[in-house]
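>> received
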Amino acid sequence: MNKTLKKIIIKTRRNIFSEIIGNNSSLLKGEGYDFLELKEYEYGEDVKKIDWLISAKFKKPFVKVFHAQKELNINIVPILNGSIYFGSKRFKQELVTEICSILGYSCVKQGDPFSSFIANESLELCTKKSKRNFAVTMMSEKIFNYDCIGKSVDLKNLSDELFKKIRKKSIIFLVGDFFDIENLDFKLLSRKHEIIAIMVRDKFEEQPFELGNVNLVDPATNQTFDGNIDKAMIKEYQKRVKANDHKLYEHFQKCGIKFTKIYTNEEPLPKLLRLMK
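>> returned
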């Protein structure tokens, strides 16, 4: 096993099993003991859930809704397109591996089964549903060693494939840089599942500096760029990145998707813990 990968696995396992992480609490609603809200009765719902006192007060039926305390279905989906193969501090692919490892060990600790997929041009199963440590190791190894060069991503196709393949109501963690958001559409998927997006970025991608004459290769398309990166080009590039992220954030908010951004020079665990509160 690669030394860097081994360090990631040991580090994340130690951190998760030594951290005090709270009990399951998610946006998923179902049977449980933690009261969440009252809502109007809809045709077909169990009449046993009706709160007769409140219903009599408002003169129409209301039912109680609770936090889902039963076993959660977790799906971890790293988006490994070519742009993940980049990093000034460390490669984004390495950070994606660490984040997925943290999520996997969190599932093991809480006793929730998790599955994982690798997404880019297609959606392939990475690890089957499991609650075991070996599944986290297997997932981490596949993500770390995955050849993402030359791979692109279609987010609409990804959403459609996840909708088809994940039948039970689940929590889906999407982990990627979200630079290529053409055909962005998670509306249908977010109605069925709880989606949490984790954006992985390098500071240089958002705030580049002048490099002068360079020859660059796009790891997603293998296209080359031979030219001068000056202030004017950087200004235009930053403008496009901001427009990209504005569109992305708006879509996440409309779909009720929780999200955070983690840079390659940051420790992911504190931000993930804040995200899950």
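>> The first strand starts at residue 29 and ends at 40.
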